[in-house]
């Protein structure tokens, strides 16, 4: 069967990664969480006090960053490693969410990550989710999906996820963070978040996870 690239973009907390993971499992594809890559860089910058306004510092830091994904044998899911250390839990914390959009605006950061993402998807058979996958990373992706959902639904889902990871965060704080990230992500100069002209729009406000996954799989099967 022909292998394709599935690009899933959209606003924060619309269910992109949950859908992408499930689609990848069903199709036997590799799932690549590009948001996790920007989060890992943000964590490194935070831990090493890298100044975002100092281009040289940023470039030097990027040379020392190695991001990889490894499968957790128990859950079967890929986890993010930063310089050999598992940071999957740490990168989901609120302090990382609060700073990631400022880091992902930087030209040097985007250049490095886009190059790595293209390498990871070169052989196809990937489901990649993010903000610029269908527009910049893989503009020729065979299937592009743009996900959106009501802000309150998104915030509620994110709150549940955080709670599952032991973090109790106010709904208003989450809404504030999602709005701020959406704004920065869609207004930045470098590869802003926008729907690719040929992307399928999937509003997940009233959809169950199963329905979201089915929709993407049906679309994918029509291209394979
Ligand atoms: O997908 P997630 O919410 O984990 O992404 C975290 C942040 O990483 C986004 O708010 C955005 O600033 C950045 N990002 C990006 N480009 C991508 C994926 C994520 O700029 N392809």
Characterize the structure shown.
By secondary structure, the protein is of the alpha/beta class. It has one domain: 3-Layer(aba) Sandwich (Rossmann fold), CATH 3.40.50.300. The chain has helices at residues 16-27, 34-47, 55-63, 94-104, 107-120, 133-137, 151-164, 171-187, 209-221; strands at residues 5-10, 30-33, 67-71, 78-82, 85-86, 126-130, 143-148, 200-203. The chain has a 5-stranded parallel β-sheet. It has a 3-stranded antiparallel β-sheet with strand order 3-4-5, covered by helices on one side. Cytidine-5'-monophosphate is lined by residues 12, 34-35, 38-39, 100-101, 104, 130-133, 181, 185.
Key features of this structure:
single chain, 224 residues, alpha/beta, Rossmann fold, 5-stranded parallel β-sheet, 3-stranded antiparallel β-sheet, globular, binds cytidine-5'-monophosphate
What average pLDDT do the residues reach?
96
- Outline: globular
Order of helices and strands: EHEHHEEEHHEHEHHEH
Question: Count the strands?
Answer: 8
Question: What's the CATH H-level homologous superfamily?
Answer: P-loop containing nucleotide triphosphate hydrolases
Please give the share of residues in helix.
40-55%
